[in-house]
Each structure stands twice: as C-alpha cells, then as structure tokens.
Amino acid sequence: MKGEEVRHRKKEGRSDNGVRPRQHAPEKGKNKHNDDRIGSREQDVPVVSYKKPLEEKVAMAKHEEESSFQIGLQVLFPYFLAGLGMVLAGMVLDFVQHWEVFKTITEIFILVPALVGLKGNLEMTLASRMSTAANIGQMDEKHQQWKMVTCNLALIQVQATVVGLLAAVAAVILGSLSKGYLDFSQAAVLCASSVTTAFIAALSLGMVMIGVIIGSRKMGINPDNVATPIAASLGDLITLSLLAGISTFLFKYKDIYYISPLVCGVLVLLIPLWVSIAARSSQIKEVLKSGWQPVIVAMTISSVGGLILDKTVTDPNFEGMAVFTPVINGVGGNLVAIQASRISTFLHYWSMPGVLPYKMRQAWPSPCNTFFTSGVNSKSARVLFLLVIPGHLLFLYTINLLQGGHTAITHTFVSFYLTAALFQVGILLYMADLIVRFTWRRGLDPDNFSIPYLTALGDLLGTGFLALCFRIVWLINGAETKLGD
Description:
By secondary structure, the protein is mostly helical. The protein has helices at residues 2-12, 54-64, 68-96, 100-104, 108-116, 118-135, 142-179, 184-219, 223-252, 259-269, 271-278, 282-290, 292-313, 321-350, 367-371, 376-386, 388-401, 411-441, 446-477. Helices cover 74% and strands 0% of the residues.
C-alpha cells in the first residue's frame, strides 16, 4: 500500500518531504535531485536539489537528446537572419564612412567595434542568462517573469551607460595619442554619441530579446539556439544606424557647447535609478557587484580591434574593408555565443558552480574533445563550425548583389576570406569550451562572464584576420582587386 502511495506521489510530481527510504535505490538513469532539501545528509555524499518540476525534466531530457540535425535546424534560420542583418550593418558602415562626421572625428571608427560589441557584452549575455533561467524553470510563473524582466533591463541600462562612456574615453585617448593632440569639442560629441547610442540600443534590443525568449519557451524551442542569433541580427544594424544618426546630429550643433555634455550628464544621472531597480533581484545584485570586469575588459579588447579598423579604413590599400568587418565579426560572435549559452545551460542543469559534471570532467579539454566526441556540446560545436562556409558564401553573394564595398569579390579573395573566417570561428569555439569550464570551476556564472570575453575576442580576431586577408590579396593581385568608387 505504501509503495502504491509513493508511486501516486511521483505521478503527481510531489516529493516525500525530503525523505527517501534507504531500501529503495534510485533507478539507473533517473534524476537524483528530487529532494526538497538542499544537501540532504541521508547519504555520505550530499544531494543537491533544484526542485525541478516534471515538465522541466522532460524539456531537459529532450535538450540532452538533441541530434546534430535538430540543432542545425533550430540554429539555421536565426543564423542566416542574423547574417543578413550584419550584411546590412556592413552596408550602413560602408555608406556612412564618407559622412563629414566620420571623416572629421575618425575616432568614431574606434568606437564601432566597442559599441557593436555591446551586443555581446550586454544583449547576448542577457539572452544567455534569461535562456538559462527559462530552461531551468525560473520564468514559469508570472511574478518571477516580471521580476527577471525588469531587473535585467535595469542592469543592462547601467552597464550600457558606463561602458558607453568608458568606450568613448578609450577612443578619445587612443585617437589623441595617434593624432598628437586633443580637440575637446570633438571629444564631447564622441562621448555623448557613444553613451546615447549604447543607452537606446541596449533598451530596444533588451526588450526584443525578452520577447524572443518568452515566445521561444512557449513554442517549445530551445531559447539558447535562437535568442543570441536574433540579438546579433538586430544589434549591429541598430547600433551602427543610431551611432551614425546621433553623432551627425550632435556634430551639426557642436558649436552650441553645452548640448553634448548635457545629454551625456542626464544619462549618467539616471544610473542610480537603474541600480535601485536592478538590486531587487539578489542574482542581478551580485552581477552589479562582480560583473564589471568581463564587460570592461571586453570593451578594451574591442577598442584595440577598433584601432585596427580606424587605421585600415582610411588606407587606400584596404578600401572596402568596412563592409566586411561587421559580417566577419558578427558571425564569429554569434556562433560562439550560441555555443557558450548551450554549455552554460548544460552546466546549470547537471551540476553546481565550482564542480564540473562527469560528462565534462576535463578542466582543460583538447580541441579533439571539443569537436570530436559524442556529447551534445561537441555536436553543437561541429554544427556551428560547419555553418561558417555556407553562411559566409551567402553573405558574400548578398554583398556582391547589393554592390557593397569597393573590392572585387574574386576567387582569391573568397578563398582567403573563408580561411580567415574558419580560423576565427574554430579558435572561438575552442576558447568557449575552455572559458566556460574555467569560469564554472571558479564558481562564476558563465552567462555573465564568458560571452563578453568571447565576443570581444571575436571582434579582435575578425578585424585582424580580415586586415591580413586584404593585405595578402593586395600583395597577390595588386590594384586589380579595386573597382573604384
């Protein structure tokens, strides 16, 4: 009779008040985390419970059983959509680089990777954090959902304002060192443009991301596979368009000396309001305290990539590079963010911070372990790597069709460009495996700490490899690769 009662409880999803009879060993393959108590002392090894509902376990079981085909099918559409968004962003950058404000304040090019990189520092981190929360059942109830949404939006407003200001300061310093002088009116325009662009882009993209994640969860689609690509598809285009429009407006009125400082000051004064809202969540409050290092370091890395872009865009030998930079950087950051988000979700479900699960017991895996095992994370790494060539071929064809850039897309250029893209994504996917494991072993949340580093590294590798590609093609073909304006 007692066994029948226990079976009835399990069928209804109810626990046994944290007490499991010793004589009933758990069946092989069953989830052991059914206790309501954290760290039950019944056995020698403490049992950690997350009190996961039955539907959640079924969802994670399906996630664990995902085949390469299923992963590719879910990633394919948002990946191509993201790529087309990056192509449009490249066309925008190729067009606006000839505007007066970009020719006069060339430090704006240093800002481009840093501000576009906010997509990885903020929006993709937000998408990864909320995808993990959705997958482990922390957004199933309305009040939980509302709290997660408001606190996360407030958090990214704080981060966007601070990082936007720091990125502008870094661009001013690097530009003044390069030029040998500092123009304070141009510096004010640069700071106000950066902070305003970051603020508006973070708010609009954050709201879109939240809608995508909640919608994906309701449709039974893994948010890890679709949220970050959609953030990428909109992020570059919105950010570059905002930067071009806002900087042009402020540059037009730069003689009215107080406009740019006033705009910047108002947005900075809003920071305490966003902090008070974000601090309502203990999890987000912790990110407010400890989550600045990866964001600021990532911004610094992206600024170095921006310095490379600033030097190459104005060089006639690299003419046409502007249109390809958002594409190669965006694709690399997009794919590695998907992988990092998936690994983070896997770790959150199967282990606790500080301890790697058995299936990922190697702290420093080799590239073979990352790409050539039967695990679900290795499957996704292979799928994402194989998407590089068909994706970039489509994006190159689209650029050529739209007559973007000033470089002939020859067989030689395509070969070196695809080689650069493969090296970039291969390095990033392997680094994702290393960095996510490293942050998890240190007890840190990979959703907050890994993606900023990875997307910033993607910007640096993408810009550097692309510049090298242009240099090699120029040395091989000379002036024949140039079509002229």
